Amino acid sequence: MCSISGYFSDEKVPTRIVTDMLKKTEHRGPDAHGLYADGEIQGSREISDLESSEKAKVCLGHSGLSIVSGDEDAIQPFQSCDGSLSLVHNGEIYNSQELRGLLSKDHTIEDKDNGSEILLHLIEEIYDGNLLRTVQSVVKMLNGMYTFAVTDGDEVVIARDPIGIKPIYYVEEDGGVYFCSEQKGLYDIEGEIRRIPPGKILRANKDGISIHQGVRIERPQIDITNFDEALTLYKGALTDAVERMLRGLSVDKVGMIFSGGVDSVLIAKLISDFGWNLRCYCVGKKDSEDVKNAERVANDLGLNLRVIQIDERTVKAILPEVIESIEMNGLLQVEVAVTMYLTAKAASEDGIKVMFTGQGADELFAGYWWYKEVVRKEGFLKLHNKMWEDIDLAYDETFEREDKVTMANSVELRVPYLDRNVVQCAMRISPRLKIKDEGDSTRKWVHRKVAAALGVPHYTAYRGKDMAQSGSGIHGLVKKVAEEYFEGKKVDDVELADKGSNYRYLDEDYGTPEMRAYMQEITKANQCLGG
Fold first, then answer.
1. Which of 80, 179, 208, 228 could lock 124 by a disulfide, CB 3.0 to 4.6 Å apart?
2. How many domains does the chain have?
3. Strand, helix or coil for residue 109
4. DSSP H or E stretch at residue 228
């Protein structure tokens, strides 16, 4: 829902460094902007109004996207009642109302529906002079996607959610730290750009920069072994998560990234059943499998679907924008990002600010084809551990990419399958209820059965898994564009199925040498990654 940025320094440095970061990431929050500088806060609808020649030791910046009731009038940074704490927050706290009910009556809260403001008052109520310890206590209570930075004037503490849905990067320089929601905001700062890992907290003060543990994804027992019990509990957790993510939105319509597969169709069906004005978006070649499946199921369920058809010309034109948005140029990452980028672009054109995605279900329910190989070679216990490993690592290759391509179009992405309670419920379920054996080509049995029970047609609920770049036809289009660029030279493609392991680790081998080289040429020609 926004961009956050800022710095902590031993010496006073120009605040224009932060306003420059806000300009470079304004696409994440074009509606309102604010700046904290050594205790002084100002806000405006235009970043240019915040520019000055002033210097400060601590500066926090925020650019906001108005999607929640009250956002139109609220401009971050927020300041605590006593003025001692200031905060900038990117994301959404889905249990903010429940937590607000635990606060004492001494707080003056301007907007009781604003999770960011409530977050600051939670920190204020627990704050005992040790800001790190306070934040460590508060993040354990949160269910949501977030990065936030809070300062008491003497130090800055930055926290990231345990799944890693929202990105945050930093650079250390001369004893200080500069941070931003996207790497492009830090390109002009000397030093290595690093990310704060999921569930970690960065602390910056006069003693230096340090990384601390925040909140981990809990590892529950595998204690759901009955299929019917699994169906009941998972159905309840997922339905509650979708309802919670819709609650409090000030928008009159929402979007859905829609491939026609079970994961996206199930979320779309739930949103539609809640009575929301929903528009689904599918990207693909004419007559591609994704387009055909999406059109069929949307028609059968009465869903409003917009299809964005692509060809070689479309792909060639859009690749520089995609690479600049995701801040990487690996072939596999770019291909997957193309569909989501065009989806978010179309949704933004339609005035949609919030989109939902079916991302995460495959990690929770053993949906990827390589999971059956794990069962065959190592058994179900190793499969469960492998799924946790993929959940832990998905931020690096998936969640950060998807946040950036949607926010590049001023659209916030919500991920119900990664709701804290959904993850906990799903990972309590025995892996034997998710995949039958090493020969199981369907997989995700609990998930599919719940989808069918909630009204998803059988042909979709039990449709086989296909990669986004394959089902949409993106891979073949990029291959043709690359071959044309290199004057028709053709090299045998490397298919994912030939590798026998997790596709996230295959980017150096995936596709053809020409396709990978073409990504490098685009990057160089368009200076997509900061020159």
1. 80
2. 2
3. coil
4. helix 227-246
